[in-house]
Amino acid sequence: MDFLAPFFNHNHNVTPVPAPQINEWIKNIGTEDYCPYAIALGFACATTAIIVILAFVQLYFVVKYISDETVRSDLYWIVLMCPITTTCGLVGMFVPRAATFLNAVALAYLMLCLFVMVTLMNSLFGGRKSLAAYLTERRELIRFNVFPICCCKCLPTFRPTEANLRRIEWSVFQTPLIRISLEIMNLVVFLELKERNHWWFQASNVLGLSSMFLAFYGCYVMTPLGQECLAQYKFKTVFRLVDIAQALFSLQKFFFDFLAAIGFFEEGPILPAIGKSQFITSTMLSWEMLLISIIATYLLRPSGNSVFDKYHLQKSSNPLPQLVAAANDNKTELPPVRPPPQRESKEADSVSLSAKEGTSPFRQSKIAPYTE
Fold first, then answer.
1. Are 269 and 280 in contact (CB under 8 A)?
2. How far, CA to CA in Å, does 123 sit from each of 24, 116, 271?
3. Mean pLDDT of 247-258
4. d(Cα 42, Cα 34) in Å, to the nearest integer?
5. 81: nearest Cα among 124, 50, 114
6. Torsion over CA: 135, 136, 142, 146 (sign)
7. Whole-number Å distance between alpha carbons of 92 and 196
8. φ, ψ for residue 133 (rounded to 5)?
9. CA distances in angstroms from 172 to 78, 112, 129, 364, listed in the order given
10. Whether residue 245 has pLDDT greater than 80
11. What is d(CA 146, CA 143) in angstroms, rounded to the nearest whole number?
12. Considering only the top CATH level, what class is 22-313?
């Protein structure tokens, strides 16, 4: 039997049946038509189990070795990104009727993780006010000629005031709110029409994609700020992993849904066309999230990341003799955030640049990174 036959069934005389439930999967799992689906389900179950185990390991290090409660709270969202998205996809594979709703939940969570990256950046600096003071002291500006329009040199620049930083944050935070609202309206329209072949669903996809691209752009504007201090916390690595995760999910879901809409997937005896696209998307997402989870566990391990301040304090309390000299040579210090000289300003977005000292253990951290 051709492995892809259930996915690409070109028999136009086949009458589609309702999406199977769990008891039907179990009863017919050994049949010829169900075998490819059973293999995909087994693979997705295995990868999801590994992802959940890795998430518990990551949570253990976050809880044990990070002292700042605000930073820990932000990292909880990031750590749970892979388990939640893969679990939603796995449940949608077993219960195809709920796959559309579960995919919407996973996508909204991924969009929320983008906003959490912005709040994590503020937390590492001790708050938005401290970040604005740091950027102003070093004369950094908010630049809008970033990816994907980095070639547009004519775009204006803005001062890094609290008000401007807050506006960028809201450009990112709008996408989970809009996504949730659109999915609720999609559910209402579907229950009313009993089908998805309506212009509203196409308009909903366009609005959702526009909101998503605006959030991407806001993140690309925000994350380059203060990179000199954020490098030791591997902030850019965390952002890239989150960005890749949501990009993979969004783009491949849009691609396979588009193939289903143009009739590339035929209605079959097991799943309809849209069900096949969702099934393939969830299968691919399972191993993609597993790869991202493994990479994150290795690259963001406590030994090479200063965000785990308790870990480095324990290592520096009784260091090995052969590592003392290397630790002193590689010691990195964050310059304290000092308010710049006060000057008169009548601009509407001017703010007080004085920052509270000691609001975050990371902003003034002097812990030398541990080197193996």
1. no
2. 49, 10, 46
3. 82
4. 12
5. 114
6. negative
7. 18
8. -65, -40
9. 16, 8, 19, 28
10. yes
11. 7
12. mainly alpha
Nearest 5°: CA angle at 370, between 366 and 239?
80
Return left, alpha or beta for 234; rule: phi > 0 is left, psi -120 to 50 is alpha, else beta: left
**What's the average model confidence in pLDDT over 251-255?**
82
Half-sphere exposure (Cβ direction) of 337: Cα atoms closer than 13 Å: 29
The secondary structure of 184-239 as a DSSP string is HHHHHHHHHHSSS-SHHHHHHHHHHHHHHHHHHHHHHHHTTTTHHHHGGGTHHHHH
Strand locations in the chain, DSSP E?
142-143, 157-158
Q: pLDDT band at residue 311, thresholds of 50, 70 and 90? A: confident
Least trusted range by pLDDT, from 48-62, 78-92, 282-296, 315-329: 315-329
The phi, psi pair for 200, rounded to 5°, reads -60, -40
Which tokens sit at 51?
Answer: 């992802």
**Around Cβ 328, how many Cβ atoms within 10 Å?**
10
Whole-number pLDDT of residue 344: 46
Residue 238 carries which side chain, given as an amino acid letter?
A: V
Is beta strand 142-143 parallel, antiparallel or unpaired with respect to 157-158?
antiparallel
Is-contact 363 125, C-beta < 8 A? yes
pTM of the model: 0.72
pLDDT at 33: 57
Q: What is the pLDDT of residue 372?
A: 45
Q: Do 120 and 74 meet the contact criterion of CB atoms below 8 Å apart?
A: yes
Residues composing the chain:
372
Number of H helices, E strands in the chain: 13, 2
Q: Are 239 and 219 in contact (CB under 8 A)?
A: yes
Other CB atoms within a 10 A radius of the CB of residue 212 amount to 21
Burial of 200 (0-12, 13-18, 19+ CB in 10 A): middle
Write the single-letter amino acid at 330: N
For 58, the token pair is 């990551």
Residue with token string 């990179």: 227
Under the banding of pLDDT at 50, 70 and 90, the label for residue 60 is: very high
Mean pLDDT of all residues in 280-287: 89
> Which residues 6+ apart lie within 8 Å of 329 measured at CB?
none
